[in-house]
């Protein structure tokens, strides 16, 4: 799998999840704040970016 395909898959999943969260917030099913989400999960985002870069580097060797 090349890096462009991995980026496209991740971007699609990210937009899908964010869209569902915003939709549920608009329907008053769930309260969602983007800043609270990033404030809580920013370490996870950094871990993902690091792992993705390592995997891409190992695949391209």
Provide a descriptive summary of the structure in words:
This protein is mainly α. The protein has one domain. 82% of the residues lie in helices and 0% in strands. The protein contains two helices and no strands. The longest helix has 26 residues. It is elongated and about 50 Å long. The mean pLDDT is 81.
Question: Which value, in Å, is the CA radius of gyration?
Answer: 15 Å
- DSSP summary, beta strand count: 0
The major beta sheet can be summarized as:
none
Distance from N terminus to C terminus (CA atoms, Å) equals: 12 Å
Summarize the helix and strand pattern as letters.
HH
Give the CA-based shape. Answer: elongated
Helix/sheet category: mainly alpha
- Average pLDDT figure: 81
In short:
This protein has 61 residues and is an all-alpha fold.
Mind sketching the topology for me?
Layout: H1 3-26, H2 34-59
Question: Tags for this entry?
Answer:
mainly alpha, 82% helix, single chain, 61 residues
